[in-house]
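Regression check, adenosine-5'-triphosphate case 334:
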Amino acid sequence: PTRILTGITTSGTPHLGNYVGAIRPAIASSRAEGAESFFFLADYHALIKVQDPARVQRSTLEIAASWLACGLQPEDVWFYRQSDIPETTELTWLLTCVAGKGILNRAHAYKAAVDRNREAGEDDDAAVTAGLFMYPVLMAADILLFNAHKVPVGRDQIQHIEMARDFGQRFNHLYGEHFVLPEVVIEEQVATLPGLDGRKMSKSYDNTIPLFAPREELRKLIYSIVTDSSAPGEPKDAEASNVFQLYRAFASVEETARMREAFSAGIAWGEAKQALFERIDAEVSPLRERYESLMSRPAEIERILRDGAGRLRERHAIPTLRRLRDAVGLRDLS
Ligand code: ATP
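Current build output:
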C-alpha cells in the first residue's frame, strides 16, 4: 500500500485552514483503495513555538477530537500523538548525525527568523532556539520512521520534504537501504486559506477562524474579515478577496461561479459574508455536534490515542529502531 502521512502541530485550536488544507483531503484519501494513512498530533513540534503546557494539552485534545469528528476511523488508519512514539526522538538523533548543517542553514523557517533579527538590528541568531533550527530533522524523522511514500504538503513545505529525502539518502548511503525516500506531492487543488487579516490563516498569527467555533462566534468572526471599502453596487474583484477565497473552499463549482458573478455585479460585503457564513456552517455544523460530544469525553480520546501509538510502536517503530541501532553500531536493546 501507499503510505500517506499528515500531521498537525498541537500549538492551538484547529482552524478552517487545517480543515481545508489537511483534515478534509487526508480523510478523503485515507478512504481510497490501497492507502495506508498515518495521522499524527505533532506535539514535539509544538514545543518549538509554544512554551505553555496547558495550551499544548488543550490543543492536543482539540485536534484529536477534530480528526475524529471529521470522520477518521481509528481502526482503519494509524492515529497517534507524536510524543507517544519516543522512537521519533531517537531517530532524530541518528539523522542529526548525518544531516548537513549547511542544509539546515537554508531552511525557510530559520532564515525567516534570521531576517527578522537583521531587520531589528539584532544578532542573526538572537532568540533562535536550536529546536527551530533542527525542526527539519524532526520532521524527517516523522516521515522516515514509517517509510511514508507521500506527504501531501503546501508549497511552503516542499523544502522540508526535500531535506527528509536528503537525510534519508545520506543515511542509506552510509548504512544500507533502510529508508524509502518520500515523494513531494503538491496538492494543487487544495487551497491555502487566508486568515482574518488576509495573511495565511495560521495558529501562529492569531488570525484564525476556529473550525468548531460555536455558530454565533463563527458568524462574528466571518463578519470581522478585513475587506476593502468598496460600497454595495461597486464591482468587486473576486480573486483578490479573502471572503471569496474562503467561500470557494466550501462551495461547489456552480455556487462558486454564481458568487463570482455576484462579485462582478457589486454584492455588498455584508451579503457576501452572510453567504459565506451559511455555506461554512452548513458543512461544519453536523461535525460540530460530534466534536462537542467528543470533547466531553476526553478519557475516550486519550484511550484511542494510546491504543494507536501502542500498536504502531509494536508494529513499526520499535522493530525499525532495533534495525537502525544495529546498523549504526549501537547496542541491541532486545
Ligand atoms: P502553526 O502556526 O503552529 O504552524 P498552522 O495553523 O500554520 O500552525 P500546521 O499545524 O503547521 O498549521 O499545519 C497543519 C496542516 O494544516 C498542514 O497540512 C498545513 O498545510 C495545513 N494548513 C495550515 N494552515 C493552512 C491554511 N491557511 N490553508 C490551508 N492549509 C493549511
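Comparison notes: The pocket of adenosine-5'-triphosphate is lined by residues 8-9, 11, 17-18, 20-22, 49, 153-154, 192-193, 200-204 (CB under 6 Å). Residues 298-328 form the longest helix (31 residues). No diff flagged against the previous build.
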